[in-house]
Amino acid sequence: MKHNKYLKVVGDIKDRGRIKWTALMLPEHVEMIREWYAKDELVAKPELTEDDLQLLQEEMDIALKRQCEVVIQSWKEGVVYEHRGTIEGIEARNRMIVCKEGEQRHRLSIDKVVGIVMID
């Protein structure tokens, strides 16, 4: 039997998923479905309590003093990004964290940070 990469076997039913329906849809419908899938993957910004903010501050201070490697999670426009590196400094005036990842330096807004985890 010939192998079909689009064929999925679910139980006793052989199915091609969305492939069989795309021929019946208008381009506008396909575009709307793609937008819907993209919006569905977005994450709402986590609401941090005072305790959470205090823990973030403590983790940031310890990581800065020890110069250990950290994973900083930042939220931007519905997506949570992870930055792995060491914290080189904190710019209080601009509310920025200076993080070094390998040879690159990144400046992350403190307001966008949702989590910090020390690795070392």
Task: Describe this structure as you would to a colleague.
It contains 3 helices and 7 strands; from the N terminus they run ββαααβββββ. With 120 residues, the protein is of the alpha+beta class. The strands form 2 sheets. Strands 6-5-4-3-7 form a 5-stranded antiparallel beta sheet, covered by helices on one side. A two-stranded antiparallel sheet has the order 1-2. 7% of the residues are buried. The mean pLDDT is 82.
List the helices and strands and how they pair.
Layout: E1 8-10, E2 13-15, H1 19-22, H2 27-40, H3 50-66, E3 69-76, E4 79-91, E5 96-101, E6 104-109, E7 113-118
Antiparallel strand pairs: 1-2, 3-4, 3-7, 4-5, 5-6
What's the quick description here?
The protein has 120 residues and is α+β, with helices and mostly antiparallel strands.
Mean pLDDT: 82
Instruction: Kindly name the structural category.
Output: alpha+beta
What's the total number of strands?
Answer: 7
**Rg computed from alpha carbons, rounded to a whole number of angstroms:** 22 Å
N- to C-terminal distance:
53 Å
Beta-strand proportion: 35-45%
- SSE arrangement, N to C: EEHHHEEEEE
Please mark out the parts with pLDDT under 50 across 5 or more consecutive residues, or reply none. Answer: none
Shape verdict = elongated
The count of helical stretches stands at 3
Strand order of the largest sheet: 6-5-4-3-7
Proportion of residues in helical segments: 25-40%
Main sheet attributes: strand count, strand direction, barrel closure: 5 strands, antiparallel
So what's the oligomer here? single chain
